[in-house]
């Protein structure tokens, strides 16, 4: 019965996703009943139930002086627009707590369209080092960087220990949720036939060795949809001397495979780094390895500071 109801609801919501309707959802977002209804208009929700592909529809979001172009036909852009705030606030909160300022660098691995890091870089004057594998997503990222006058180093590449095929790896695309683009072909489900693009790749160590700003990195965020362990292992040299805190998505509820991967991340990192859970405001919590968090924080142990 529930499946039938969901099919019926999405039949109507897919046909009601006009801009005026999205504006109404935005205006009523403070009401719990509207927030519950909003879920059925999410392109990420719809793509798992109905074979619909939406064309990009960019709208501008103005938030505390930051201007962002967001695609309301994509999961991240849709929720940013309806909530009237950037989709990801962990980097924003953590950078403020660390007291970052002009000249400091935020390294955003898996930057998507910049909702996580562009607002705080604009506000504090930090430099952004953004790594985004998808060319289409990187184009929107560059637009948001330009809109906000952020000083940025942008590399359209994937970080991996895998040398790929002639230096390229296959990035599997998730229409309706480009934030779930992944190097793993089974990372996300959709009733669409999957599509992909070939992306250049390099190790984290190589990227850092070529970066003129490496000694100014003060905060690192990693959100690479299931490839977190591989990214970290491709940067063992850098991590052995890194002192910047590391934000990492920790969604062990995604799948058993993801849970195993993230527990291996902990095994690799916890000798050198202390790990904390984080709430939405970036406050540290006692970390439970069997609980899902939007982000966890790795901080280097004092006794393991590089000489």
How would you describe this structure in keywords?
22% strand; 12 helices; alpha/beta; 13 strands; globular; 307 residues; 2 domains
Describe this entry's structure for a reader.
The protein is α/β, with parallel strands linked by helices and 307 residues long. The chain has two domains: 1-86, no CATH class; 88-304, Rossmann fold, CATH 3.40.50.150. It contains twelve helices and 13 strands. It has helices spanning 2-13, 19-27, 32-38, 43-47, 75-83, 90-98, 118-124, 135-147, 204-209, 228-233, 236-241, 256-269, and strands spanning 58-63, 66-71, 105-109, 127-131, 152-155, 158-159, 168-173, 195-202, 217-222, 246-250, 273-278, 284-285, 293-300. An eight-stranded mixed β-sheet has the order 5-4-3-9-10-13-11-12. Strands 6-8-7 form a three-stranded mixed β-sheet. Strand 1 (58-63) and strand 2 (66-71) form a beta hairpin.
Layout of helices and strands:
Blueprint: H1 2-13, H2 19-27, H3 32-38, H4 43-47, E1 58-63, E2 66-71, H5 75-83, H6 90-98, E3 105-109, H7 118-124, E4 127-131, H8 135-147, E5 152-155, E6 158-159, E7 168-173, E8 195-202, H9 204-209, E9 217-222, H10 228-233, H11 236-241, E10 246-250, H12 256-269, E11 273-278, E12 284-285, E13 293-300
Parallel strand pairs: 3-4, 3-9, 4-5, 6-8, 9-10
Antiparallel strand pairs: 1-2, 7-8, 10-13, 11-12, 11-13
